Amino acid sequence: FLLVNLLAGSQGFVPSRICNNGIRLETKSFTSQNMFTGIVEEMGTVIKLEERDDMTLWDGSKGSGTELTVKGNIVLDGAYLGCSICVNGVCLTATELEEEFFKVGLAPETLRRTYLGELKSGDFVNLERASEIGGRNSGHFVQGHVDGVGTIIDRWIDEDSLFFKVKVEPELLRYIVAKGFVAIDGTSLTVCEVNSRLDESWFTFMLVEYTQKKIIIPQKKVGELLNIEVDVLGKYSESALAAIIPRIEELESKVKSLEEQLANAVGKSD
Q1: What gap in Å lies between CA 3 and CA 255, rounded to an integer?
Q2: 135-186 per-position pLDDT tens digit
Q3: Residue 192 a catalytic site member
Q4: Of 18, 39, 217, 222, whose CB count within 10 A is highest?
Q5: Which is the catalytic residue, given 37, 84, 114, 187?
Q6: Annotated catalytic residue within 27, 31, 56, 190
């Protein structure tokens, strides 16, 4: 199947061209089909989250919106205006670049689907640059299109592993399966257990010792939120089956009708 444009819905504002020390700022004249791997490259720091009413729109008029400024290092290597950077699992477009930080716009849909609107100065965030399709992928196909949020309802230690239990809405849990992939705050992780009872609706995952030191999740406590992106392959499979099942049901109905007709014909001949 063809992968959808991973940048759709991630743009916040029109990128502005600025000068910078050593960072490529040219806006690409084409849109690369980029995605993420869920292998977090670094933990950045939120500098500020602010509402602005002077954003330049496509027709030159001014609009309002939310802008996030993040301090980073690795993700700025090779960055350019309009490039995609994954922030806590959300694919966002770089609108301004400086030597030690970058800015992104948060669209209304992003604020509705994620908890990024709750970030504050000093918070740590998971960061990852987009990876060209066809390159090495040590995680799984992560779009950066968060499906919803989950709430931590328990956490515990098992030897050197850190386990989390996360409650999500049933409509999201349907795509989460034991031993399958899930992206949590942009981190590619393996699902351990799933409880799909409507009064439960939770799943668990664990972090190995190495990963615990590279991402923000271990800092989170019971009651805090996580951005959740389910494996897109599950959603594609459901979509494909939705188109096929009606045809199968129609064929089964026709076969049943033919069987009944044949049974009637045999009965009359007897």
Answers
A1: 36
A2: 666 767 888 999 999 999 999 999 999 999 999 999 999 999 999 999 999 9
A3: no
A4: 217
A5: 84
A6: 190
